Amino acid sequence: MLLYACSKTDNDISTPEETKLGTGTIYYDWATDGLLKINLENGVRSTVLPGNNSRYSIDISKDGAKILTASHADDQDYDANVYTYMSIANGNIIAKFKYYPTDGDLTSPLISPDEKMIAVPPTYEDGIVILNMEGKILHHLSAFAEKKITGQILWMPDNTLLFRMDNTIYRTNTTFTQANLIKQLTFNEWSDMEVNPDGTKIAFRGGNHIWMMQSDGSDLKQITISDNQENYPVFSPDGKYLLIGANYHSTGPFGHLWYLTIIPADGQQYNVNEGADQRVVSVIANGESRPEASDGGMFWR
Fold first, then answer.
1. pLDDT along the chain (301 residues), means of 10
2. For residues 215 and 171, what is the distance between their CA atoms, to the nearest angstrom?
3. What is the C-alpha separation between 70 and 72, in angstroms, rounded?
4. Which of 127, 147, 170, 260 has the most Cβ atoms closer than 10 angstroms to its Cβ?
């Protein structure tokens, strides 16, 4: 695919510079269009899943071959979350079952790296629930240090879990019986943890910008600056780049959108204001002149 970084000529006119960032596919939700993808080798944009008001969560396996969705039941079983695990290539369903969280909460299940488990992020009543691929409960982590687990969770490449409690990040063991403190943060607001493919770096949004650190919590650095807000960092399959949502902003009482932007994941700081830094590239599909926008999940596989 061809990506572009805006540079400026002597006349201060922005012009695109062609930049190639390897292979892989970027997936992203956009409005009523559904789940879209851009092939980085040819720049072609296409639809993976059409828009569906019943679907409220998507995860994609690390090999990019399978997708897990969570949807409302179509039989008025209002307390059920319907989990569907299927092939991206042909749509064949590998597994489909109903999961019943307490109080009928909506959940966003996550596929484990080995594709043998599903982690259900904590609800207020349930904490973290680990299922097998047929929906059987394997582990239930309701509390830690006598406090309910309520924050974001994230699979690590070795099938351990990161989880957040208040401003602290913990990491479980592979049997989910113990957890160790990784980092206590000082941000008033932070979210969107993401790990690189080999498990050595963690990126997240802290305040309005993207930060990165080693997976043991050391070497914390702010890696984006701008006049706006960035969110949802996603590492490339080789770990060399980060896809981020730049210029995050409101589109109404409940809606937000952002623009797909790529920076190197080398620990340096990048100005992601439009045209400010030639090392920052926008994701632009073939035949388009503006960066792709998203208002939901983003993946790079």
1. 44 43 88 95 94 96 98 92 97 98 94 98 94 97 91 97 96 97 97 98 98 98 98 97 96 90 97 96 94 96 97
2. 10
3. 7
4. 260
Please, are residues 4 and 282 in contact by the beta-carbon 8 Å criterion?
yes
Dihedral (C-alpha) 120, 29, 65, 68: value to the nearest 10 degrees?
30
Helices and strands in the chain: count of H runs, count of E runs? 0, 31
Q: Tell me the C-alpha distance between 156 and 252, whole Å.
A: 35
**The pair of three-digit structure tokens given for residue 267, joined into one six-digit string:** 């620990």
Asked if 246 and 258 count as a contact pair (C-beta separation under 8 A), the reply is yes
Supply the pLDDT for residue 14: 37
Measuring CA to CA, which residue among 68, 54, 17 is closest to residue 299?
Answer: 68
d(CA 184, CA 168): 4
H or E element, residue 250:
strand 241-250
Q: Which of 71, 67, 101, 93 is nearest to 83 (CA)?
A: 71
Torsion sign across C-alpha atoms 114, 120, 121, 127: negative
Residue 21: its pLDDT value, please? 61
Q: Do residues 182 and 216 make contact, with C-beta atoms less than 8 angstroms apart?
A: yes
Question: What residue numbers bound the domain in which 264 lies?
Answer: 3-300
Fill in the amino acid letter for 232.
Answer: Y
Q: How far apart are CA 233 and CA 249, in angstroms?
A: 16
How many domains, in total, are found in the chain?
A: 1
CATH of the domain at 270: 2.120.10.30
Angle at 51 between CA 45 and CA 55, to 5 degrees: 125
Residue type for 287, please?
G
